[in-house]
Automatic annotation (TrEMBL):
It comes from Quiscalus mexicanus (Great-tailed grackle). Belongs to the class I-like SAM-binding methyltransferase superfamily. TPMT family. Its EC number is 2.1.1.67. GO terms for cellular component: cytoplasm. Pfam families: TPMT (PF05724). It catalyses: S-adenosyl-L-methionine + a thiopurine = S-adenosyl-L-homocysteine + a thiopurine S-methylether. The keyword Cytoplasm applies. InterPro entries: SAM-dependent_MTases_sf (IPR029063), Thiopurine_S-MeTrfase (IPR025835), TPMT (IPR008854). GO terms for biological process: methylation. This is thiopurine S-methyltransferase. One of its GO terms (molecular function) is thiopurine S-methyltransferase activity.
Length: 196
């Protein structure tokens, strides 16, 4: 099959937390992603003050970059360490509060108010909790989601975006029989069937 040996592969939340604890985060980029810079005008569509969502955000440096441009950034990440590292590495003061709708979840918000990072499973989020977004920067989320959860993920993402939103998606292309993932191989045909 197109997905090779990956279709049944499952990476648990504990495994992701362990990657952060062990510093095994080769997926984190210290520099802003060149494709975001290249397609920034597509994401922003000539507008200011957008709400931009970072699914499985880690400590992505682009969150601060977009917030500094005047946009409101919301991210979700299972690793509290990643979230705290983001704020400390950028010298950003923040406050931390529970998310009443999600047991055990916390929301970390910059004191300036323009960056809000939810520490929980992405599947615990809904538009009633986080609202809707004008743009999504999906640099490493769809390719990190377990293949069996892609439909659930795509349905959630579609429910979180406004009608005229922009969705920038980065995937990786390789032979899935030679690498077990993550990142997982997501063929273009599957992206079309997931997102339309």
């Amino acid at each position: 099959s197109d997905a090779g040996s990956q279709k049944d592969r499952v990476v648990t939340e504990e495994e992701w937390l362990e990657k952060w604890e062990m510093g095994n985060i080769g997926f984190h980029k210290e520099e802003g992603h060149p494709l975001l810079q290249k397609y920034l005008d597509v994401l922003l569509n000539g507008k200011n003050g957008l709400r931009i969502f970072f699914p499985l955000c880690g400590k992505a440096v682009e969150m601060k970059w977009l917030a500094d441009m005047g946009h409101s950034v919301v991210g979700v990440e299972i690793s509290e360490q990643a979230v705290k590292d983001f704020f400390s590495e950028h010298g950003l003061p923040y406050c931390e509060e529970p998310v009443p709708e999600i047991s055990g979840a916390k929301m970390f918000q910059s004191t300036s108010g323009n960056i809000s990072l939810y520490c929980c499973s992405i599947y615990d989020l809904s538009s009633s909790i986080v609202g809707k977004f004008d743009g999504v920067w999906d640099r490493g989320a769809l390719v990190a989601v377990n293949p069996c959860d892609r439909q659930r993920y795509a349905s959630l993402m579609i429910s979180l975006v406004e009608k005229n939103s922009s969705y920038l998606l980065v995937t990786v292309s390789y032979d899935p029989n030679k690498h077990k993932g993550p990142p997982f191989y997501v063929p273009e045909s599957e992206i079309k069937s997931l997102f339309g």
